[in-house]
Amino acid sequence: MTASASPQISRLLIDWYDANARSLPWRNPPGAPLPRDPDWPYRVWLSEVMLQQTTVAAVIPYFAAFTERWPSIADLAAAREDEVMAAWAGLGYYSRARNLVKCAREVAALGGFPRTEAELRKLPGIGAYSAASIAAIAFGERAVVVDANVERVVARLFAITEPLPGARKAIRKAAEAITPTQRAGDFAQAMMDLGAQTCTARRPRCLLCPLSDHCEGRASGDPEKLPVKPPRKARPERRGTAFWIEREGAVWLVTRPGTGMLGGMRALPDDGWTARAEGSGQAPVEGEATRLGAVRHGFTHAQLTLELVRIDGDARPEGEGEGEGEWWPLDRLDEAGLPTVYAKAARLALAARG
DNA sequence: CACGCGTGGCT
DNA sequence: TAGCCAAGCGT
After folding, report:
1. What integer pLDDT is reported at residue A332 of this predicted model?
2. C-alpha dihedral sign at A195, A299, A172, A56
Protein backbone atom coordinates (compact mmCIF):
# COMPACT_ATOMS: atom_id res chain seq x y z
CA MET A 1 0.00 0.00 0.00
CA THR A 2 1.26 3.41 -0.86
CA ALA A 3 0.23 6.53 1.02
CA SER A 4 -1.36 8.00 -2.08
CA ALA A 5 -3.40 4.88 -2.85
CA SER A 6 -5.81 5.34 0.06
CA PRO A 7 -7.91 8.27 -1.17
CA GLN A 8 -8.08 6.67 -4.58
CA ILE A 9 -9.34 3.42 -3.11
CA SER A 10 -12.03 5.11 -1.05
CA ARG A 11 -13.11 7.14 -4.08
CA LEU A 12 -13.30 4.08 -6.31
CA LEU A 13 -15.34 2.24 -3.73
CA ILE A 14 -17.73 5.12 -3.06
CA ASP A 15 -18.28 5.59 -6.81
CA TRP A 16 -18.98 1.89 -7.14
CA TYR A 17 -21.42 2.07 -4.23
CA ASP A 18 -23.24 5.03 -5.75
CA ALA A 19 -23.94 2.88 -8.81
CA ASN A 20 -24.33 -0.54 -7.20
CA ALA A 21 -25.62 -0.18 -3.65
CA ARG A 22 -28.17 -2.77 -2.65
CA SER A 23 -31.51 -1.30 -1.71
CA LEU A 24 -32.29 -2.58 1.77
CA PRO A 25 -35.21 -1.76 4.08
CA TRP A 26 -32.96 -0.17 6.72
CA ARG A 27 -30.69 1.63 4.29
CA ASN A 28 -30.46 5.28 3.26
CA PRO A 29 -29.80 5.69 -0.49
CA PRO A 30 -26.13 6.31 -1.28
CA GLY A 31 -25.10 9.93 -0.97
CA ALA A 32 -28.45 11.02 0.48
CA PRO A 33 -28.46 13.26 3.55
CA LEU A 34 -29.16 11.56 6.88
CA PRO A 35 -32.93 11.04 7.26
CA ARG A 36 -34.78 13.48 9.53
CA ASP A 37 -36.97 10.62 10.72
CA PRO A 38 -36.58 10.48 14.52
CA ASP A 39 -36.71 6.69 14.30
CA TRP A 40 -33.73 6.53 11.94
CA PRO A 41 -31.09 5.64 14.58
CA TYR A 42 -33.47 3.04 16.01
CA ARG A 43 -33.82 1.38 12.62
CA VAL A 44 -30.06 1.40 12.03
CA TRP A 45 -29.40 -0.06 15.46
CA LEU A 46 -32.09 -2.74 15.08
CA SER A 47 -30.75 -3.78 11.69
CA GLU A 48 -27.15 -3.89 12.94
CA VAL A 49 -28.03 -6.13 15.86
CA MET A 50 -30.09 -8.43 13.65
CA LEU A 51 -27.27 -8.59 11.13
CA GLN A 52 -24.69 -9.75 13.66
CA GLN A 53 -23.51 -13.09 12.22
CA THR A 54 -26.74 -13.26 10.25
CA THR A 55 -27.44 -12.96 6.54
CA VAL A 56 -29.36 -10.09 4.95
CA ALA A 57 -31.95 -12.51 3.56
CA ALA A 58 -32.68 -13.92 7.00
CA VAL A 59 -32.96 -10.47 8.57
CA ILE A 60 -35.35 -8.83 6.09
CA PRO A 61 -38.62 -10.42 7.31
CA TYR A 62 -37.68 -9.99 10.98
CA PHE A 63 -36.80 -6.34 10.46
CA ALA A 64 -40.17 -5.80 8.79
CA ALA A 65 -42.04 -7.56 11.59
CA PHE A 66 -40.20 -5.72 14.38
CA THR A 67 -40.56 -2.25 12.87
CA GLU A 68 -44.24 -2.91 12.16
CA ARG A 69 -44.92 -4.06 15.70
CA TRP A 70 -42.50 -1.73 17.52
CA PRO A 71 -42.02 1.32 15.25
CA SER A 72 -39.87 3.29 17.71
CA ILE A 73 -37.33 2.74 20.44
CA ALA A 74 -40.00 3.78 22.97
CA ASP A 75 -42.32 1.06 21.72
CA LEU A 76 -39.63 -1.58 22.01
CA ALA A 77 -38.58 -0.32 25.44
CA ALA A 78 -42.17 -0.77 26.62
CA ALA A 79 -42.50 -4.26 25.18
CA ARG A 80 -42.60 -7.39 27.31
CA GLU A 81 -39.30 -9.21 27.09
CA ASP A 82 -40.91 -12.60 26.44
CA GLU A 83 -42.82 -11.16 23.48
CA VAL A 84 -39.61 -9.83 21.99
CA MET A 85 -37.91 -13.18 22.55
CA ALA A 86 -40.80 -14.93 20.79
CA ALA A 87 -40.65 -12.48 17.89
CA TRP A 88 -36.92 -13.20 17.58
CA ALA A 89 -37.50 -16.98 17.41
CA GLY A 90 -35.80 -18.52 14.40
CA LEU A 91 -33.21 -15.79 13.98
CA GLY A 92 -30.71 -17.38 16.36
CA TYR A 93 -28.20 -16.09 18.92
CA TYR A 94 -30.98 -15.35 21.35
CA SER A 95 -28.91 -13.33 23.80
CA ARG A 96 -29.21 -10.63 21.16
CA ALA A 97 -32.95 -10.42 21.80
CA ARG A 98 -32.49 -10.11 25.53
CA ASN A 99 -29.83 -7.44 25.10
CA LEU A 100 -32.05 -5.72 22.55
CA VAL A 101 -34.70 -5.10 25.20
CA LYS A 102 -32.13 -4.01 27.78
CA CYS A 103 -30.56 -1.64 25.29
CA ALA A 104 -33.91 -0.22 24.21
CA ARG A 105 -34.78 0.56 27.83
CA GLU A 106 -31.44 2.20 28.50
CA VAL A 107 -31.69 4.29 25.35
CA ALA A 108 -35.28 5.29 26.10
CA ALA A 109 -34.16 6.37 29.56
CA LEU A 110 -31.35 8.40 28.00
CA GLY A 111 -33.87 10.11 25.73
CA GLY A 112 -32.27 8.77 22.56
CA PHE A 113 -29.22 7.06 21.15
CA PRO A 114 -25.80 8.53 21.88
CA ARG A 115 -24.07 9.44 18.65
CA THR A 116 -20.46 8.66 19.43
CA GLU A 117 -18.77 5.33 19.04
CA ALA A 118 -17.48 5.38 22.63
CA GLU A 119 -20.92 6.02 24.14
CA LEU A 120 -22.64 3.48 21.89
CA ARG A 121 -20.06 0.90 22.90
CA LYS A 122 -21.31 1.02 26.50
CA LEU A 123 -24.78 -0.22 25.58
CA PRO A 124 -25.69 -3.91 25.93
CA GLY A 125 -25.35 -5.90 22.73
CA ILE A 126 -23.30 -3.19 21.04
CA GLY A 127 -19.68 -4.21 20.61
CA ALA A 128 -16.81 -2.68 18.70
CA TYR A 129 -18.26 -3.37 15.28
CA SER A 130 -21.82 -2.24 15.97
CA ALA A 131 -20.72 0.91 17.80
CA ALA A 132 -18.62 1.96 14.83
CA SER A 133 -21.24 1.09 12.25
CA ILE A 134 -24.09 2.85 14.08
CA ALA A 135 -21.97 5.96 14.65
CA ALA A 136 -21.07 6.03 10.96
CA ILE A 137 -24.36 4.98 9.38
CA ALA A 138 -26.90 6.51 11.73
CA PHE A 139 -25.03 9.68 12.63
CA GLY A 140 -22.46 10.27 9.89
CA GLU A 141 -19.55 10.11 12.32
CA ARG A 142 -16.20 9.07 10.93
CA ALA A 143 -15.65 5.60 12.39
CA VAL A 144 -13.56 2.68 11.24
CA VAL A 145 -15.96 -0.19 10.71
CA VAL A 146 -14.40 -3.65 10.68
CA ASP A 147 -16.55 -6.71 10.27
CA ALA A 148 -15.83 -10.03 8.58
CA ASN A 149 -16.46 -8.49 5.14
CA VAL A 150 -14.02 -5.68 5.77
CA GLU A 151 -11.48 -8.13 7.14
CA ARG A 152 -11.71 -10.17 4.00
CA VAL A 153 -11.61 -7.26 1.56
CA VAL A 154 -8.71 -5.59 3.35
CA ALA A 155 -6.71 -8.79 3.82
CA ARG A 156 -6.96 -9.37 0.08
CA LEU A 157 -6.46 -5.80 -1.01
CA PHE A 158 -3.19 -5.57 0.89
CA ALA A 159 -2.29 -9.26 0.75
CA ILE A 160 -2.15 -9.61 4.51
CA THR A 161 -1.08 -13.23 4.87
CA GLU A 162 -0.73 -13.43 8.63
CA PRO A 163 -3.46 -15.74 9.96
CA LEU A 164 -6.42 -14.47 11.96
CA PRO A 165 -6.81 -13.50 14.69
CA GLY A 166 -3.25 -12.19 14.77
CA ALA A 167 -3.82 -10.25 11.56
CA ARG A 168 -6.56 -8.12 13.10
CA LYS A 169 -4.19 -5.36 14.14
CA ALA A 170 -2.76 -4.95 10.65
CA ILE A 171 -6.20 -5.22 9.10
CA ARG A 172 -7.60 -2.51 11.34
CA LYS A 173 -4.66 -0.26 10.55
CA ALA A 174 -5.18 -0.73 6.82
CA ALA A 175 -8.94 -0.18 7.16
CA GLU A 176 -8.22 3.00 9.09
CA ALA A 177 -5.99 4.19 6.24
CA ILE A 178 -8.69 3.81 3.58
CA THR A 179 -11.67 5.05 5.61
CA PRO A 180 -12.64 8.51 4.35
CA THR A 181 -13.61 11.44 6.58
CA GLN A 182 -16.71 12.12 4.55
CA ARG A 183 -19.43 9.53 3.99
CA ALA A 184 -17.89 7.02 6.41
CA GLY A 185 -21.28 5.29 6.70
CA ASP A 186 -21.60 4.81 2.96
CA PHE A 187 -18.00 3.68 2.83
CA ALA A 188 -18.63 1.03 5.48
CA GLN A 189 -21.72 -0.20 3.69
CA ALA A 190 -19.85 -0.20 0.41
CA MET A 191 -17.17 -2.43 1.92
CA MET A 192 -19.86 -4.76 3.23
CA ASP A 193 -21.72 -4.87 -0.09
CA LEU A 194 -18.46 -5.57 -1.86
CA GLY A 195 -17.61 -8.33 0.60
CA ALA A 196 -21.09 -9.84 0.45
CA GLN A 197 -21.54 -9.83 -3.32
CA THR A 198 -18.17 -9.48 -5.04
CA CYS A 199 -15.23 -10.20 -2.76
CA THR A 200 -16.94 -13.30 -1.38
CA ALA A 201 -15.25 -15.88 0.80
CA ARG A 202 -15.21 -18.86 -1.53
CA ARG A 203 -15.33 -17.40 -5.02
CA PRO A 204 -14.28 -13.75 -5.39
CA ARG A 205 -15.59 -12.12 -8.56
CA CYS A 206 -12.51 -10.08 -9.28
CA LEU A 207 -13.69 -9.14 -12.78
CA LEU A 208 -16.56 -7.20 -11.20
CA CYS A 209 -14.47 -5.57 -8.50
CA PRO A 210 -13.81 -1.81 -8.64
CA LEU A 211 -10.59 -2.33 -6.67
CA SER A 212 -9.12 -5.18 -8.70
CA ASP A 213 -6.41 -3.03 -10.29
CA HIS A 214 -5.17 -2.15 -6.80
CA CYS A 215 -5.58 -5.56 -5.22
CA GLU A 216 -2.38 -7.23 -4.11
CA GLY A 217 -4.31 -10.37 -3.27
CA ARG A 218 -5.53 -10.66 -6.83
CA ALA A 219 -2.03 -9.96 -8.09
CA SER A 220 -0.75 -12.78 -5.89
CA GLY A 221 -2.92 -15.23 -7.85
CA ASP A 222 -5.21 -16.75 -5.25
CA PRO A 223 -7.13 -14.11 -3.34
CA GLU A 224 -9.63 -16.72 -2.17
CA LYS A 225 -6.94 -18.01 0.20
CA LEU A 226 -7.14 -14.78 2.20
CA PRO A 227 -7.64 -14.08 5.00
CA VAL A 228 -5.93 -17.12 6.47
CA LYS A 229 -8.09 -18.58 9.20
CA PRO A 230 -7.24 -21.06 11.93
CA PRO A 231 -8.93 -24.47 11.53
CA ARG A 232 -12.31 -24.76 13.17
CA LYS A 233 -12.85 -27.15 16.00
CA ALA A 234 -14.89 -30.21 15.17
CA ARG A 235 -18.50 -30.16 16.27
CA PRO A 236 -19.33 -33.01 18.66
CA GLU A 237 -22.33 -35.21 17.98
CA ARG A 238 -24.99 -35.07 20.68
CA ARG A 239 -28.18 -36.94 21.34
CA GLY A 240 -31.07 -35.68 23.36
CA THR A 241 -34.77 -36.29 23.82
CA ALA A 242 -37.67 -33.87 23.73
CA PHE A 243 -41.15 -34.78 24.92
CA TRP A 244 -44.53 -34.12 23.37
CA ILE A 245 -47.12 -33.94 26.12
CA GLU A 246 -50.54 -33.07 24.77
CA ARG A 247 -53.81 -32.62 26.64
CA GLU A 248 -57.08 -31.24 25.33
CA GLY A 249 -55.68 -29.39 22.36
CA ALA A 250 -52.69 -27.96 24.19
CA VAL A 251 -49.04 -28.96 24.48
CA TRP A 252 -46.77 -28.56 27.49
CA LEU A 253 -44.06 -25.95 26.86
CA VAL A 254 -41.33 -24.79 29.18
CA THR A 255 -39.18 -21.67 29.18
CA ARG A 256 -35.49 -22.40 29.15
CA PRO A 257 -33.14 -20.80 31.69
CA GLY A 258 -32.15 -17.25 30.80
CA THR A 259 -28.52 -18.00 30.02
CA GLY A 260 -26.83 -20.60 27.89
CA MET A 261 -28.06 -22.35 24.79
CA LEU A 262 -31.46 -21.12 23.58
CA GLY A 263 -31.57 -19.11 26.81
CA GLY A 264 -34.92 -17.60 27.69
CA MET A 265 -36.71 -19.28 24.83
CA ARG A 266 -39.84 -21.41 24.99
CA ALA A 267 -39.14 -25.05 24.26
CA LEU A 268 -40.49 -28.54 24.42
CA PRO A 269 -39.54 -30.16 27.73
CA ASP A 270 -36.42 -32.25 27.30
CA ASP A 271 -34.11 -34.62 29.11
CA GLY A 272 -31.42 -32.08 29.90
CA TRP A 273 -29.24 -32.50 26.83
CA THR A 274 -26.63 -29.80 26.28
CA ALA A 275 -23.96 -29.04 23.75
CA ARG A 276 -21.48 -30.57 26.20
CA ALA A 277 -23.37 -33.62 27.41
CA GLU A 278 -25.94 -36.17 26.37
CA GLY A 279 -29.41 -36.07 27.80
CA SER A 280 -30.64 -38.47 30.47
CA GLY A 281 -33.55 -39.77 28.40
CA GLN A 282 -35.73 -39.07 31.45
CA ALA A 283 -39.19 -37.57 30.86
CA PRO A 284 -40.57 -34.76 33.06
CA VAL A 285 -43.81 -36.66 33.57
CA GLU A 286 -45.06 -40.20 34.11
CA GLY A 287 -46.93 -41.88 31.29
CA GLU A 288 -46.78 -44.16 28.33
CA ALA A 289 -43.92 -43.30 25.99
CA THR A 290 -44.17 -43.52 22.20
CA ARG A 291 -41.25 -42.65 19.95
CA LEU A 292 -42.39 -40.23 17.23
CA GLY A 293 -39.08 -39.88 15.38
CA ALA A 294 -36.01 -37.67 15.47
CA VAL A 295 -34.85 -34.37 14.06
CA ARG A 296 -31.29 -33.39 13.18
CA HIS A 297 -30.16 -29.90 13.94
CA GLY A 298 -26.77 -28.23 13.69
CA PHE A 299 -25.64 -25.64 16.19
CA THR A 300 -22.41 -23.69 15.99
CA HIS A 301 -20.68 -25.99 18.44
CA ALA A 302 -22.61 -29.27 18.34
CA GLN A 303 -24.59 -31.43 15.98
CA LEU A 304 -27.73 -32.68 17.63
CA THR A 305 -30.00 -35.64 17.02
CA LEU A 306 -33.12 -34.90 19.01
CA GLU A 307 -35.42 -37.83 19.64
CA LEU A 308 -39.05 -36.94 20.04
CA VAL A 309 -41.14 -39.00 22.44
CA ARG A 310 -44.85 -38.57 23.13
CA ILE A 311 -45.94 -39.14 26.71
CA ASP A 312 -49.56 -40.08 27.30
CA GLY A 313 -51.20 -40.10 30.70
CA ASP A 314 -52.85 -37.94 33.32
CA ALA A 315 -49.91 -37.07 35.56
CA ARG A 316 -48.97 -33.44 36.10
CA PRO A 317 -45.72 -32.46 34.37
CA GLU A 318 -42.85 -31.24 36.52
CA GLY A 319 -43.28 -27.55 37.14
CA GLU A 320 -47.04 -27.41 36.60
CA GLY A 321 -48.51 -24.96 39.07
CA GLU A 322 -45.06 -23.56 39.74
CA GLY A 323 -44.95 -21.28 36.72
CA GLU A 324 -42.25 -23.39 35.13
CA GLY A 325 -44.22 -24.26 32.06
CA GLU A 326 -47.54 -23.70 30.35
CA TRP A 327 -50.17 -25.54 28.40
CA TRP A 328 -49.97 -23.89 24.99
CA PRO A 329 -52.95 -24.14 22.60
CA LEU A 330 -51.99 -26.12 19.52
CA ASP A 331 -53.88 -23.78 17.22
CA ARG A 332 -51.57 -20.94 18.33
CA LEU A 333 -48.34 -22.93 18.34
CA ASP A 334 -46.76 -20.71 15.70
CA GLU A 335 -47.03 -17.80 18.17
CA ALA A 336 -45.12 -19.64 20.89
CA GLY A 337 -41.76 -18.48 19.57
CA LEU A 338 -40.10 -21.87 19.46
CA PRO A 339 -36.49 -21.79 18.29
CA THR A 340 -35.95 -23.72 15.10
CA VAL A 341 -34.82 -27.01 16.62
CA TYR A 342 -38.04 -27.26 18.64
CA ALA A 343 -40.15 -25.94 15.79
CA LYS A 344 -38.84 -28.86 13.75
CA ALA A 345 -39.74 -31.27 16.55
CA ALA A 346 -43.21 -29.78 16.87
CA ARG A 347 -43.71 -30.13 13.13
CA LEU A 348 -42.77 -33.79 13.40
CA ALA A 349 -45.21 -34.34 16.26
CA LEU A 350 -48.06 -32.69 14.41
CA ALA A 351 -47.30 -34.71 11.28
CA ALA A 352 -47.20 -37.95 13.29
CA ARG A 353 -50.54 -36.99 14.76
CA GLY A 354 -52.03 -36.81 11.29
C1' DC B 1 -7.97 -14.47 24.40
C1' DA B 2 -10.76 -18.43 23.56
C1' DC B 3 -14.90 -20.03 23.88
C1' DG B 4 -20.16 -20.41 23.84
C1' DC B 5 -23.74 -19.08 21.26
C1' DG B 6 -28.34 -20.45 15.91
C1' DT B 7 -29.52 -20.67 11.63
C1' DG B 8 -29.79 -21.03 6.64
C1' DG B 9 -27.43 -20.38 2.20
C1' DC B 10 -23.62 -21.52 -0.78
C1' DT B 11 -20.21 -24.41 -2.98
C1' DT C 1 -22.70 -32.84 0.25
C1' DA C 2 -20.86 -31.74 4.30
C1' DG C 3 -18.56 -28.40 5.71
C1' DC C 4 -17.80 -23.45 5.50
C1' DC C 5 -19.41 -19.18 6.32
C1' DA C 6 -22.13 -14.74 7.86
C1' DA C 7 -23.02 -6.90 9.13
C1' DG C 8 -20.25 -10.28 16.57
C1' DC C 9 -20.97 -10.02 21.57
C1' DG C 10 -20.23 -11.27 26.36
C1' DT C 11 -17.51 -13.47 29.50
Report:
1. 97
2. positive
Domain A5-225: homologous superfamily in CATH: Hypothetical protein; domain 2 (1.10.340.30)
Q: How far is the CA of A274 from the C1' of B8 (A)?
A: 22
Q: Can you give the pLDDT at residue A4?
A: 53
CA-to-C1' distance for A236 and C2, Å?
15
Nucleotides of B under 7 A from a protein CB: 1-11
Distance B9 C1' – A93 CA (angstroms): 17
Active site residue A48: yes
* C6: residue with closest CA to C1': A53
Cβ burial of A24 (10 Å; 0-12, 13-18, 19+) is middle
Lowest mean pLDDT among A100-109, A134-143, A306-315, A321-330: A321-330
| Average pLDDT score over residue span A50-69 | 97
For residue A184, which amino acid is it?
A
Q: Which residue in A268, A274, A343, A269 sits closest to A302, CA to CA?
A: A274
Record: fold of A237-353: Nucleoside Triphosphate Pyrophosphohydrolase (3.90.79)
Q: What is the mean pLDDT of chain A?
A: 95
A70 — pLDDT class (breaks 50, 70, 90): very high
Nucleotide nearest to A137 (CA to C1'): C7
For chain A, where are the E strands, in sequence order?
237-244, 246-247, 250-255, 266-267, 288-298, 303-312, 325-329
Amino acid at A343: A
Query: A3-37, pLDDT tens digit by residue?
Result: 456 789 999 999 999 999 999 999 999 999 999 99
Whether the beta carbon of A236 falls within 7 A of nucleic chain B: the reply is no
Task: Delimit the domains of chain A by residue range.
Answer: 5-225, 237-353
Does any strand B atom come closer than 7 Å to the Cβ of A99?
no
Helix, coil or strand: residue A99: helix
Hey, is A264 helix, strand or coil? coil
3 state SS of A251: strand
For A228, left (φ over 0), alpha (ψ -120 to 50), or beta?
Answer: beta
